[in-house]
Amino acid sequence: MAGVQLCEPRRLYNVLNQQRRLPRLAEPGYLCLLDTRTQHEYDDSHIITARRIKQSPSGDYLIPDSEELRCVRYCVVYDCETSSLGHCDCEEEEREKGTRDIHQHSKRILANDFLISLGAGEGTAVRYARSLQQFTRHPVLVLMGGYKRFSACYPFLRTQKILWMPQELDNFQPYPVEILPAKLYMGNYRQACDQQIQKDLKIRAQVNVSEQPAMLFTEKGKLLHISVPDSLEADLFSSFATICDFIDTQLGSGAVLVFSSLGISRSSTATMAYLMRSCRFSLK
Prior knowledge:
Elements: E1 4-7, H1 9-16, E2 31-35, H2 39-44, E3 46-47, E4 51-52, E5 61-63, H3 66-71, E6 74-78, H4 91-106, E7 109-110, E8 113-116, H5 124-132, E9 140-143, H6 146-153, E10 158-159, H7 166-170, E11 177-180, E12 184-188, H8 189-192, H9 195-200, E13 203-208, E14 223-225, H10 240-250, E15 255-260, H11 266-278
Parallel strand pairs: 1-9, 2-4, 2-6, 6-9, 12-15, 13-14, 13-15
Antiparallel strand pairs: 3-10, 5-8, 7-8, 11-12
């Protein structure tokens, strides 16, 4: 089995905001985000693109199509505020019962969905995730702290929207990737010029490692522009110390965004340099 793992809110935030040519949320088989809370709680607000787990007339929770789960890269489940995998029954007992329970669950079918009986209280996400792990190739992720913690960290990713059309996902505007919680972000030029993003993430300074000037921050000392061409021959190494010192200075007063034109090579190089120099991260 793929297993069950806890997922920090920051990890889900970054999963939601990945992009290639288009946002990765638009890719089939990328993310299956499942909400196990009550219908009222879900309708009030939920995480963007989340689907509420359906229930049978008898109140049993339905497992989504097993073929969909088998192909998905990230399967994330959340409830109100589960904070550990120990909220459900004793883990040793669960391991012993696992094979037998899965066999029983797999025999109960309703309209191409699998049924599972779960309590609606604390730990629902963990118990539900354990029932999904037989269908997935990757570990099922349980959101640590549930919706309560995630929505407190990222209130701008809450919604009441239920149905997302493919074109809407294609046009979804991702936020910068979060490198250090609420402190260091990495993104592209468009994100750096978006005032709403700066407000939502409380960004107070920027490091621009592209040739394009960005003048969103007019306050003196809040913008560092290292003009570097997008070329294999470009010299970014000589500016590492300047970049790192600037970020260290600015983090005391708020979050910092490091960006380049596309937010891929130059910005990631500068960000890795900072993590290795100031945070003592290894290259691995």
